[in-house]
Design a protein that fits this description.
Blueprint lengths: L1 E3 L5 E4 L15 H7 L3 E10 L8 E7 L4 E8 L15 E10 L12 E11 L6 E8 L5 E9 L4 E10 L4 E2 L5 E2 L2 E6 H4 L10 E6 L2 E9 L5 E14 L14 E7 L17 H4 L9 E4 L2 E9 L1
Antiparallel strand pairs: 1-2, 3-4, 3-10, 4-5, 5-6, 6-7, 7-8, 8-9, 9-10, 11-12, 13-14, 13-19, 14-15, 15-16, 16-17, 18-19
Amino acid sequence: MDFYGMTGEKLGTIGQVEGKSPRQGNLPQWKKDFLEKPSVSIRKGIAWGFSSPYEDTSTLVLTSPKSDFVDIRFPVQPDPSKPLASDPAFWAFSGSATTTFDPDTSEITMPYSAHCVWKHDIDSKGPGTTDEGDMFLLPNGDCMEIGMMENHKTRKVEMYKEYWSSPASELGSGGLRKTPCVVAKTRELVDQGRAPQTGSGVIIRVGDYCQGIVQQSRQDGTPGVLVERWTKCLVEKNPALSDQSDVSETTAAEWLKDWRSNTSPDDQVEVAIPCMWACGDNRKVGDEIVVHAITWRITEVVL
């Protein structure tokens, strides 16, 4: 969509316009920032219409270099006595993302902006969903997303503005950013052209975050999902269990499961989504594991 100033001059374009391939020519840094993957995106707030932003979820999106993503939006304080999916603020989905820019022309276009489309292969609200929005880089490095979608409070399609931030990644050798990424999929999602079914799932680990999602069917036949979120955190060691020769180290990095995940809380007894297997050391493309007669395969590794 084009928009114009008071005197009729064209100020820019909002919306999807087929642009040049990112591989063509040298890209400005702001376009590289949009295309940088793997990525971790944390939502800081959402505003409907022209109201003030607020945040009633814990929303995390992990995206791989091949643009696979897992997006899980937990209610901040879900009712533990009710199913997670019964909370209207809950939403979880995964699929593939694409990013396009305005073509380089002589006309004025919107700099520091891109159009993104997210195709949902697995969705807690049902299959076949695609959503899209216009992304704008902000001076502080955050990103604002503008689009149209259903407001879960009003059940009406409204304009929204979401505000996204990314945590700093670990510095590796030579000052380069080091963000390990591992993607695992169930076999039917690996085989292109096959539609997701009950048991289909995706796991993505990016840096210190890992999320997994598996498609399920509820007893009434409506779609549902199992989801897990894991975060690698520093935790204090128990001095009684620590190696006496290493008493100087009082903390250790461990993967902790988000309590809002709707899989079994005891992963030593039952594993529904093999997130910790995917996060294991020395994972390589082609590795497989079978969980409840479902085969998971590592499809992408960046170390």
